[in-house]
Amino acid sequence: MAMTEVDGDVTARESEAMVVAACLFHGFSDPSRLAILQHLALGEHRVVDLTGHLGLAQSTVSKHLACLRDCGLVESRPQGRASVFSLSHPEATLAVLAAAEQLLALTGDAVALCPVYGVDGSAVHPAEAAAASSTTTAASGATS
């Protein structure tokens, strides 16, 4: 996937690659998952270790670890009755987190203030909401 290459029109293959990239970034989109990833950058941890370090409930940590594992970002191995989790690709994961920190330093509070995806945003782009509304209106008008 060549997300960093810009050469004009987006082909179907490039569009599919963007969807996959968006899925990857969704894996990073939760503050608890980011905290887990940053903690796993220090080394392997069991769920009980992460709950103690992060102050999160066991069910929350387990749910987020399952998401991160499904995304291919973490892996686990059995150790006695527990599982020990680690980053699947530590160097690449740390590079993404470092790039995010660099970009955040450059943009300041802009991303947090974004009306769509910021701290108080609805996570639904206004154009998407308008399209959904017009589709619903058209569908209800067709049945009248």
Considering the chains and any ligands shown, give keywords for the structure.
3 strands; three-stranded antiparallel beta sheet; 144 residues; globular; mainly alpha; 7 helices
Tell me what the structure shows.
The chain is mainly α and 144 residues long. It contains seven helices and three strands; from the N terminus they run H-H-E-H-H-E-E-H-H-H. The chain has helices at 12-27, 31-40, 47-54, 58-70, 90-107, 110-113, 126-143; strands spanning 45-46, 74-79, 82-87. It has a three-stranded antiparallel β-sheet. A hairpin with a 2-residue loop joins strand 2 (74-79) and strand 3. The longest helix is centred in the last third of the chain and has 18 residues, at 90-107. The protein is globular. The model has no long low-confidence stretch (mean pLDDT 84).
Task: List strands and helices in order, with pairings.
Blueprint: H1 12-27, H2 31-40, E1 45-46, H3 47-54, H4 58-70, E2 74-79, E3 82-87, H5 90-107, H6 110-113, H7 126-143
Antiparallel strand pairs: 1-3, 2-3
Instruction: Output the structural class.
Output: mainly alpha
Oligomer: single chain
From the alpha carbons, calculate the radius of gyration and give it in angstroms. 19 Å
What pattern of helices and strands is seen along the backbone?
A: HHEHHEEHHH
Number of strands: 3
- pLDDT averaged over residues: 84
Number of helices: 7
Q: Name the beta content range.
A: 5-15%
Largest sheet: 3 strands, antiparallel
Strand order of the largest sheet: 1-3-2
The percent of residues in helical segments reads 55-70%
